[in-house]
Amino acid sequence: MNRAMTRALRVQWVPLLVATVVAGVVLAFTTQHFSGSYNIFEILQTAAVDAIIGLSQMVVLAVGDMSLAVGGIGGFVTIVVGNLYQVHHWPVAFAIIGGLVAGSACGLFNGLIVAKTGLSAFIVTLATGTGFTGIAYGITSAFPYPDVSSFLINLSKGVGFFPYLALVALVVSFLIGAALHWLPFGRLLLAMGGNREAATLSGLSRQRSTIIAHTLSGCLAGVAGIMYIGVLGTATPATGTDWLVVSFAVPIIGGTALVGGEASAFGCLVAAVVLATINDALIVLNISTYAVEMAEGLLIFAAVLAGRLGQVVQRSDEGHREGLEVARSLEQGPDVGQSLGGATVK
């Protein structure tokens, strides 16, 4: 099998994107509302927020960890921003900065516990995420902050079918993608996720990578929470309670490896659009909401299976090429030596 086919199998969101585009074209001609500008606006707006939620999980998956606190942090940041703006009358810019600092601090707290104690990130973030949600409900007594800045409300609008939040998602995705592949701390995260033992032997700090990943995750969860304030028109502690599936579905479908070492910010964008389109299509077709959840589960399974298939095919292809090289070297005669994988054939 050629290399182009191998790469196609490795990028698991490609067939999903193609299928979504085809289905979208069909629905545009068979339904009245799917191709309307308002519906496209809703799809892109949902995808924009989901992409940031997925990025928040992606940076932790990149080092081979996971975070179940993404939703809890997002809800907590929402309440921090709402409280600072409505109760303490901070300017909206300072309230947003305060929320992002709070989100980063929550992520830092998670990272420090995981890094310093060696406890499983699954257990730690499950506990802290629940705690952050409880704090948010405790601060507000389960009541939302209805006074929302006009800046955040206007940010949830757009031009025609294109929402401003989609531009936010594009900028954030570009920055995260550039950081992971070009900046030292980004390469540290991918290196640690790809092979922790080798990275540690090379002098890289496992604790530092864990702390950075969780801190960045908390900041991104805060960004998503702030975006939700504008979309909902209120700062509610219920924000983030339904983010768990989306936080894993977006990066996994987008090509991020569960074991770490591989992450795609662009893939998160594509996966978010795919998920938002599928969910909207099921609603337009008046299909039960249970089917939407089932579709998300099937997509996650399909993405994981596609990624695994791509790895198997890649290994098979590499083994086949190595075998051909050995055969050619032997055909050239006993006097010809060639080093292959640390061995010398003579």
Structure notes:
The protein is mainly alpha-helical and about 350 residues long. It has one domain (about 5-325): ABC transporter involved in vitamin B12 uptake, BtuC. The chain has 14 helices and four strands. The strands form two sheets. A two-stranded antiparallel ribbon has the order 1-2. The two termini are about 30 Å apart.
Short account of what is shown:
The protein has 346 residues and is mainly α. The protein is built from 14 helices and four strands. Strand 1 and strand 2 (162-163) form a beta hairpin.
Residues in β-strands, percent: under 5%
The CATH architecture: Orthogonal Bundle
List the uncertain runs: 336-346
Order of helices and strands: HHHHHHHEEHHHHHHHEE
Per the principal axes of the C-alpha atoms, what is the gross shape? globular
**Total discrete domains:** 1
Figure out the total of helices: 14
Estimated helix fraction:
over 70%
CATH class: Mainly Alpha
Distance between the termini: 29 Å
- The whole-number mean of residue pLDDT values reads 84
CATH topology value: ABC transporter involved in vitamin B12 uptake, BtuC
With strands numbered from the N-terminus, the spatial order across the biggest sheet is: 1-2
- Given helix and strand content, the structural type is mainly alpha
How big is the Rg? 23 Å
Number of strands: 4
**How would a crystallographer describe the biggest sheet?**
2 strands, antiparallel
